[in-house]
Amino acid sequence: MKWGDWRVYKDAPPSPVKAVTSLPSFSGQRGGHVLVDKAVRRLVSHNLVNIEGRKMPEKKKPLVVVTRKLPDVIETRMMELFDTRLNQDDAIMSPLDLIEAVRTAEVLVPTVTDRIDARLLSQAGPQLRLIASFGTGVDHIDLKTARQRGITVTNTPGVLTDDTADMAMALILAVSRRIAEGERLVRSGTWKGWGPTTMLGHRLWGKRLGIIGLGRIGQALAKRARGFGLTVHYHNRRRVHIDIESELEATFWESLDQMLMRMDIISVNCPHTPATFHLLSARRLQLLRPHCVVVNTSRGEIIDENALTRLLERGELAGAGLDVFEHEPAINPKLLSLDNVVLLPHMGSATSEGRMDMGEKVIINIKTFCDGHAPPDRVLEAML
């Protein structure tokens, strides 16, 4: 057989890999067979053909179930990469829908509105190997049960830091300067014009801000707060590195109780875990000074909402800015009637840029995992 007549596979059907079916002649050229061998090996290494020259079958795409509506660009990319089932009407999945999802999916993409607890995971099929959560918090997922069942859990850390810190700072301003109250007054048509004692709030400059949880978001908030002239204090499970403290000019309090008694503003920025449930309990809330403002952009369960409401009703706290609630989407009806409270619908991370970044992280975690590697944003119990 002459090199010019050589074919990788004589009877192979037409293929887009034309370079394989007819290779140029290397007759008379020293080492020609080596060049041909390299060409074949290159195509085999790229999974375009097998060693006999047949086009390789495409790798089966993993079945991915997404529980809520994600940005169109993210959903389109997921459809391209995976066998994806979307939730086009964005309705929160019922328990039965979630059971069906975990029984069939190889990858589940839930959000904070989905309760992925031990009862649900006990219904999961053996094919479910990854829960790629769309969000930073993982308090809605039973990590212990997932680990016991051999299911990897990932989240989307880091991309929501600035957006959430912006919202925390906005709530501090809104409550301290009574912005929402003023906006309602104007819309009501009852505003009579400027007055020297009308709608008086409090300046931020020189006030003490106590941050509960100086992680990524807490540190980002501290940087913003310094720009408004606030002095930064914090309580953490562990003291941060001295370089971070120096950069933020932050004062560490080992005792949360001691810090609470001395602050003008408290911002909750720690994650919700069993250890932080009602961290701001009725007893601790009573330690706050009457002019103190409380802001929460983390999780509602960290504050005893009923106790907070009672203090606000009695005027024993100056105000609160809440983006999250203990039983959301249900809100204590008494909070709705208070003028000294700013209430937001869990929108701390709600920016177009943030949602896109979250979706990209979800895709990277799924693709990396399905390619046989450790996903970059794996969550372990010990990390919380």
Mean pLDDT over all positions: 88
CATH level-1 class of the largest domain: Alpha Beta
CATH architecture field of the largest domain: 3-Layer(aba) Sandwich
The main β sheet shows up as: 7 strands, parallel
- Tally of helical segments: 15
CATH topology value of the largest domain = Rossmann fold
Question: How many beta-strand segments?
Answer: 12
Order of helix and strand elements from N to C terminus: HHEHEHEHEHEHHEHEHEHEHEHEHEH
Secondary structure class reads alpha/beta
Net shape: globular
Integer count of domains: 3
Task: Write a brief structural summary.
Helices cover 35% and strands 11% of the residues. It is of the alpha/beta class.
